[in-house]
Amino acid sequence: MLALMGSLLTWNSAHAALALDATRYIYKGNEQFISVTANNESKSEYGAQVWVDNIVEKDTRPTFIATPSFFRIKEEGRQVFRILKVSDHMSKEKESVYWLNLQEIPQAREGSGISMAIRTQVKLIYRPTAIVEGRDGAEANMTIEYQPGSQWLVNSTPYIFAIGAVHDSEGKGIEFTPEERDNLTLFMPGDRVEVTGHTVESVNALSDYGNLEEFELKQMKKK
């Protein structure tokens, strides 16, 4: 369980000079842009490049751009930039996910030595306008699918979840393989994970704001 929860967190080296102001960003379809802040936590000036990559889909058409995409941040300073949607080819019925990248560009070192340039990646989730209102607590709407000899936890919603733990009816965490844990940390609409032999009661998942919360599945609630 600890390994699963740990993998939900944004990877960012302890030696990184630049950091973003959130561990994930939500771009709602009815917004013209979202603002992001990059902070320079070092005592040296750094350059930076920011861009957005597609995580899952094979479509390589530009979907989001960052502006400015290159900038400098003075020591212990900050820079606000915008993410803008420049395409409309993504699904209008379910969420899509992307990587927001922040690449450090350190100053050239005098003499010998190596300058470390660290990249930070966080998830950027696009939420279509049609499903903005239904997101709160949507984790509780996941379902259990029963098949002959097996049962599955299914993301039967249009939302993308980052699940840190799945609990049975006794409150115990269900063990998963590394591949299943990876799947749960980016649990896409329609994804499923096998829970044969368990009565799933609740899940722990990250909210839009990066907080780990517990959600009891509605179909499992006592009547």
Automatic annotation (TrEMBL):
Q: Which residues form the Pili assembly chaperone N-terminal domain?
A: 18-131
What InterPro entries does this protein's entry cite?
Ig-like_fold (IPR013783), PapD-like_sf (IPR008962), Periplasmic_pilus_chap (IPR050643), Pili_assmbl_chap_C_dom_sf (IPR036316), Pili_assmbl_chaperone_bac (IPR001829), Pili_assmbl_chaperone_N (IPR016147)
Q: Which GO terms describe its biological process?
A: proteolysis
Q: Which SUPFAM superfamilies match?
A: PapD-like (SSF49354), Periplasmic chaperone C-domain (SSF49584)
Q: Which family does it belong to?
A: Belongs to the periplasmic pilus chaperone family.
Q: Which organism is it from?
A: Vibrio panuliri
What keywords are assigned to this protein? Chaperone, Hydrolase, Periplasm, Protease, Signal
Q: What is this protein called?
A: Clp protease ClpE
Q: Where is the signal peptide?
A: 1-16
Where it sits in the cell: the answer is: Periplasm
A GO term for molecular function: peptidase activity
PANTHER family with a match to the protein in the record: FIMBRIAL CHAPERONE YADV-RELATED, PILUS ASSEMBLY CHAPERONE
Q: Which domain of life is it from?
A: Bacteria
